[in-house]
Amino acid sequence: MYNDEKNLYNYTYRKDGSELSHQRETVSSPSGGQYGPRGPELEMKPVKKNRIGLKITALALSCALLGGAAGGGAVWAAMQASEKNESEISLSSRPVTQVALRNVDGKTALSDAEVYAANVNSVVSIRTSATAGYNFFGQPVQSASSGSGFVLSKDGYILTNYHVVKGAETVTVTLYSGEEFNATYIGGEEDYDIAVIKVEAQDLQPVTLGDSATLNVGDHVLAIGNPLGELTFSMSGGMVSCVDRAINIDGTPFNMIQTDTSINPGNSGGPLFNQYGEVVGIVSAKYSQSSGGTSVEGLGFAIPMNDVFSMVKDIMTNGYVSNRAYLGITPQTLTEGTAAQFHYDVTAGVFINYVEPDSAAAKAGLKMGDVITKVDDTEIKSVEDLNLAKKRYSAGDTATLEIYRPDGTITVEITWGAAPKEEQSQQPVQETPNNRNDSYGYGNGGMDPFDMFRYFFG
């Protein structure tokens, strides 16, 4: 405790300060003055050295130093090992996956790799050449293009798009094995964009055709083809975005499977597979930009296999589509100007300019000046609508037409006729000299609200 006596602070070891009473005495200074009370004197005693304790302490310090050095060395070694591990490359020991070569049976769902392995030998690369005009010296200028196709039969029938071989003078087919064959044009149907060619070969591996009517939006699909004509036998995948999508290409209506599967120049004519490895469509076209000029992606289209299967067999047998529905008229889209000229009450439909004798239209009683406004339950507002509706029928099928005449509207029962052979698509002729390269497309002449660009892959 601290005692405050005469303003002097003295340290005491006792709580009551009693030891100070006999210790206070006056100490004189050499000059005769007094320093004041003398505090307790501390006796300084020499400290005896404990040799054993020093040895123990020294030993402990030495051990500590050695331990610290050892610990530091361990930390340094660990750091070096850590740095070494960070620089090491880890290698997988997983063996190469062996893809099972499965048969396409329509019942077993396959992995993407299995679909490719089962079908790549059935897909072909197609190269064509044609005379695209003449140069300044009168020499012919050759054009070349590429596309895809797939084998239909062991004896060499191959299906592709009509526009791939259109105007071709030579057609060369290359298999996945690298074998090349010169192909012969058998027949095609431009309105459906299909063509059959043939190579002289045996024991080819044909695809298995599937039922395109079983497709649902969201189903997984795959395409194998030759994008850019150089990346041969490439596979891309996606989903079905829409079924029964009506689009218009160059004024020709098509019923299509819409997919976001990557489709590029060179894919045209190639197969579209379902998850069972069956061909459900023929890759045909894609949108490259909208009507406003905006670039778009993921809008590819394929022709449903069901829509063309009977025609493909017909072409293989007869060289042309013998049962294509035929009406026998010269049609024209009715405009408001034409309607006003003839004082018609309707402003949309198909105006009949001419009726062929003995045709289905003539037998049904149609005549020039009639306006077709409906086929069964389908409204008809243009020639494109009529052509699309006609694709649902074959020769011999019946339908009900709604006809406008100035004296009233009538319904007419017709039996579709067969297109005469001279009306069928024969060996396609190149209409205009051009360098047919799939890097560009042809517009639709303003007949569709979108700017449709087909990549001409041939």
Explain the overall architecture.
- The protein is α+β, with helices and mostly antiparallel strands.
- Among the domains are: 112-318, Thrombin, subunit H (Beta Barrel); 325-418, PDZ domain (Pdz3 Domain).
- 18% of the residues lie in helices and 33% in strands.
- The protein is built from seven helices and 27 strands.
- It has helices spanning 51-87, 112-119, 162-165, 305-318, 336-341, 360-363, 383-390; strands at 2-5, 8-11, 26-28, 34-37, 123-134, 140-151, 157-160, 170-174, 180-182, 184-189, 194-198, 220-225, 234-249, 252-259, 271-273, 279-286, 300-304, 325-326, 329-333, 350-355, 371-375, 378-379, 398-405, 408-415, 417-418, 441-442, 454-455.
- Strands 9-8-5-6-7-11-10 form a seven-stranded antiparallel beta sheet. A six-stranded antiparallel barrel has the order 12-13-14-17-16-15.
- Strand 13 (234-249) and strand 14 (252-259) form a beta hairpin.
- Mean pLDDT is 78; it is low at 1-14, 18-50 and 427-458.
Give a topology summary.
Blueprint lengths: L1 E4 L2 E4 L14 E3 L5 E4 L13 H37 L24 H8 L3 E12 L5 E12 L5 E4 L1 H4 L4 E5 L5 E3 L1 E6 L4 E5 L21 E6 L8 E16 L2 E8 L11 E3 L5 E8 L13 E5 H14 L6 E2 L2 E5 L2 H6 L8 E6 L4 H4 L7 E5 L2 E2 L3 H8 L7 E8 L2 E8 L1 E2 L22 E2 L11 E2 L3
Largest sheet: 7 strands, antiparallel
Q: State Rg.
A: 47 Å
Strand order of the largest sheet: 9-8-5-6-7-11-10
Question: In the CATH classification, which architecture of the domain at 112-318 applies?
Answer: Beta Barrel
Secondary-structure-derived class = alpha+beta
In short:
The protein has helices spanning 51-87, 112-119, 162-165, 305-318, 336-341, 360-363, 383-390; strands at residues 2-5, 8-11, 26-28, 34-37, 123-134, 140-151, 157-160, 170-174, 180-182, 184-189, 194-198, 220-225, 234-249, 252-259, 271-273, 279-286, 300-304, 325-326, 329-333, 350-355, 371-375, 378-379, 398-405, 408-415, 417-418, 441-442, 454-455. It is an alpha+beta fold. The strands form seven sheets. Strands 9-8-5-6-7-11-10 form a seven-stranded antiparallel beta sheet.
